[in-house]
């Protein structure tokens, strides 16, 4: 018998969530997804078949259906909810705020869709969006989707180099950006970063939103102000009836090679999956003010700031700035001010606020909250209980949600009021999802790699330009086409899932996904560096931080200055989030006889742990020499 976690028994909302029997019913997953797709989403033309698996793992869902995600996020709400607030926007400066109704959002999206058209943007053209957290970012995404263009949002914290790589790789036709935005009271000069990026690639047009009024350089014939482009354009724009499988967006994410992967999602399935998970996992009600703190530059922002909540017609809160600026109570004051009811954030933020102290929460009335969510990394039971006690006043269930950029939607999470909670566990798979754990041989086990056994509507469809990597990296080649997540997990005696962490060389730094190989690539691109290995060192607040071991070229000597230069170099190549906390200069890296770097040993050295078996190394003396370098620091 499960021990009931008391607050879960108190939770009674269950406005839209189904009963416990849904778990059983949804085992017949195709019937389940079919009924969700039919009852929750409006189709211009019904689909003929639920799924096509003939070319697996290139699954296709809702065959020949005609749909457009923006119709479900906007048009269908206008009649009943036109005057309802769709977006509450709070700028970092306290006096800057905006309330946008569903009707206004619809009109702004239409107008900008017309604007994109005047630039010659057509179906399947890629538009790169590089902006801070402002409503126009949402407008730009929805405008692309409305006309069948593909958006590629690049996180505002990425450097010009990372931006140009993404523009190039996705073959973008246009860039939508802004003059700048606020972060910790400073102006981030976004347009300047775009200008730098465009030295290394080219696009036909750049649309620039005026936000802070800083000086920007406008290139004739290429750059145009958002407001000038929109002049005289209509606020109606026909919603294109697109094929269910029409591409919606590309979002780059990190993997085990140096090259980010362009994860591709499509209109129909992604709409179905994000809609129903948002509705049930967060138990959405009409009067909710839903705040997902993720930046839209990451998948969490795509699925649960924009598409999932808007498809459900709830009010979404967006905040531009830093969580603890100008004071550590900024988030809590926003919750109080706007009566946020559902709050979805990452464990790294929770740990940060734990450290800052409860007094910052106690200053505010957080009684509007009724449900709390978390995502991005494992939440340890201590942080879970703190979140539950101090943010949720022991009233709100803490809903831990497991998923990935590739899955598009939440895959494992409790259903509030139905699934009993256990602090630190992501609990049970969402209805319609068949999840298992496999050992190294691919046999079911209680501890091993988390795998997904069935296709699901919001699954990614491909990696842009690299279908071979898509097939090889994620799916078994047997007839079952099992999806391998890259996460280690265990299942307890109640069948509950506990996520252990990545089993590959992917790091989670403050919830942001980064590849060791990507940071290594950035280091090696510096003229002084011959080889580099990066490991993720556990960090109290950030979860993990990158630590680098670097072999210099012969003519270079280790120095404090060089370490600084290399850190700046990584910042320029990728962005601040990727900068190693520490760089050790070593003579050699531990490698197997076949030349593979054994990062496990470096991590053990960094953590001061038992190093374990080193007999497979080509040269075992390397280990001692690295230990000495580290010891000398
Ligand atoms: C990790 C973020 C533990 C996991 C939505 C996964 C989690 C990676 C959780 C995907 C969770 C996400 N508990 N770990 N609740 N949620 N992860 O693509 O390692 O940025 O593979 O998507 O985050 O990161 P991504």
Describe what this molecule looks like in 3D.
The structure is a single chain. The chain is α/β, with parallel strands linked by helices and 633 residues long. It is built from 20 helices and 30 strands. The strands form nine sheets. Strands 5-4-17-16-18-19-20 form a seven-stranded mixed β-sheet, sandwiched between helices. The longest helix is centred in the N-terminal third of the chain and has 17 residues, at 102-118. The protein is globular. It starts with 5 loop residues before the first helix and ends with a helix. 51% of the residues are buried. Mean pLDDT is 95; it is low at 1-9.
Overview in brief:
This protein is α/β, with parallel strands linked by helices.
Distance between the termini: 52 Å
Strand content: 15-25%
Any idea what the radius of gyration is?
A: 24 Å
Outline: globular
Strand arrangement in the largest pleated sheet = 5-4-17-16-18-19-20
Number of helices: 20
Low-pLDDT parts are 1-9
Number of strands: 30
Helix content: 25-40%
Mean pLDDT: 95
Q: Which ligands, by name, code or SMILES, are bound?
A: 5'-O-[(S)-ethoxy(hydroxy)phosphoryl]adenosine
Main pleated-sheet profile? 7 strands, mixed
Q: State the secondary-structure class.
A: alpha/beta
